[in-house]
Amino acid sequence: MEEYQIDMPALTGRIDRLLAEQKLSAARMARDLGFSSGLYSQWKKGSGTPSAAKLLAVAQYLGVSVDYLLGYDPDESA
Predict the structure, then answer these.
(1) Distance (Å, rounded) from C-alpha 37 to C-alpha 15?
(2) Which string of DSSP letters, residue by residue, matches 7-74?
(3) How many angstroms separate the CA atoms of 77 and 51, rounded?
(4) Is 37 exposed, middle or buried (0-12, 13-18, 19+ CB in 10 A)?
(5) Distance between CA atoms of 7 and 70, rounded to whole angstroms?
(6) Which pTM was predicted?
(7) pLDDT (tens digit, 9 = 90+) per residue, 37-67?
(8) C-alpha distances out from residue 50 to 15, 19, 23, 70, Å
(9) Across the chain, which distance is largest between two alpha carbons, in Å?
(10) What is the pLDDT confidence band of residue 78, given thresholds at 50, 70 and 90?
(11) Rounded Cα gap, residues 2 and 29, in angstroms
């Protein structure tokens, strides 16, 4: 079985674009979701990857599917 690697630059790029479109900051998202303030910056730097639960929380918060965030689905609809 092949090991799957998350394309973190693509993932965080999608999150950044969605945050900008919704006029939200990464700090606001972290606060609203109960994440530590530096968690998202760790993802952006590639020093951490999101758990399935955190990925789902971000997708729901931004109104998109996890598949969209991961680049599996070009359609943003949740």
Answers:
(1) 16
(2) -HHHHHHHHHHHHHHTT--HHHHHHHHT--TTHHHHHHHTS----HHHHHHHHHHHTB-HHHHHTS-S
(3) 21
(4) exposed
(5) 7
(6) 0.89
(7) 899 999 999 888 999 999 999 999 999 999 9
(8) 12, 17, 22, 11
(9) 40
(10) low
(11) 32
Closest by CA position to 71, among listed 2, 24, 25, 4:
4
Read off the tokens for 20: 């900008």
Q: How many residues does the chain have?
A: 78
In the chain, the N- to C-terminal Cα span, in Å, equals 28
Is the CB of residue 76 less than 8 Å from the CB of residue 21? no
Q: Could you tell me if 71 and 14 are in contact, meaning their C-beta atoms sit under 8 angstroms apart?
A: yes
Tell me: pLDDT of 4 over 80: no
Pairwise CA distance, residues 47 & 55, whole Å: 16
